Amino acid sequence: MKIGLVLPNIPSYSETFFKNKIVGLQQNGHTVILFVNNSEAESKYHNCTVVKAPKLNGNKIIVLWNLLLELLKMIFINPKRSYRLYKFNKKDNVSFIKNFKSIVSNQFLLTQKLDWLHFGFGTMAIERENIAQAIVAKMAVSFRGYDHYVYPQKNKNCYEILSSKSVKYHVLSDGMKKSLEEKGISEANISKITPAIDINLFEALIIKKSTGILQIKTIARLHWIKGLEYTLEALALLKTDGIQFHYTMIGDGIEKERLVFAVHQLGLSENVTFTGKLSPQEIKEELSKTDIYLQYSIQEGFCNAVLEAQAMGLVCIVSDAEGLSENVLHNQTGFVVAKQNSKLLFEKIKQVIQLPEAEKKNIQEQAILRVQNEFSLEKQKERFIEFYQ
């Protein structure tokens, strides 16, 4: 098959989800074409042709030239597909001006003959709901946490048109699947494929009880959605209780300045380190020196970092935000705490510190085994092959 994958940009080194999917499809004889919004992206990626959206903002001369090129494509290269897209959009009551803009700006998506057109994020399918039909391809859409839980809160009915189309949905968790079903999407059109990790890189490493300062870590974007302020408040209670620890926050983001100030206000300056982004190998090294892993998010689709921590045998404490309660099985492979409650998190950390070694080892071993059996890259590849069949 020929599969078009629509993404904001070429996958970065940390986006193993997309890289693994692409390689798996290629190994099974399928052709993958990447469509990216970034007009300055590379033209090749893992033996994939990269088709780039035209640059339609910025320098006026460049924009006018690109508009002319897209109009020529519309008239001489993609006239039938452009007309079909116009008709389908019109049927959805899209205004003439908006319809025309959509046809011009999406010419790069009309250029290839495909079996599947797959939007890598739900938000990328908005106002592009008819493109797959216009090029006579099947349509697939992946929903992640932000697409499914956050964006619709700010943009009511944003998926109304999408839900009326023939679409195959990919979701990360049973919770997301149930939510789509409640919105009227047929169960037959929804496939759950969880994130996966390189279990050879993040190999099992049972962490022994720390003989020094307790090492606690989190890997996350520095964003309000990750619940990091609640985490810091819980750690402040831990410090007040006289427990010695050091907390390392791995990642970067728009909330860094506010979080650094929160660390200062809570009297945790000597207890907290911000590392910024790290490579997978560097993350593995950090995790190997960790006693407890925290992911106390307000919202989370699933979370690869928690899988990596479990694969290495860390005791994980997570919130009950969406996919996290499926990622970690409470009292079996880790612990799940109600979100947005710093005191509850503090109490759970104390309980984990006091766990008997035998009980802790049992949880670690169950976590390792479950990740190896259910969340390997090979298993994920198999599920995507099935998805397109």
UniProtKB/TrEMBL annotation:
Record InterPro entries: Glyco_trans_1 (IPR001296), Glycosyltransferase_grp1 (IPR050194)
Superkingdom of origin organism: Bacteria
CDD domains in UniProt: GT4_PimA-like
Pfam families per the UniProt record, alphabetical: Glycos_transf_1
Domain Glycosyl transferase family positions: 217-363
Protein name, as recorded: Glycosyltransferase family 4 protein
Lineage, highest ranks first: Bacteria, Pseudomonadati, Bacteroidota, Flavobacteriia, Flavobacteriales
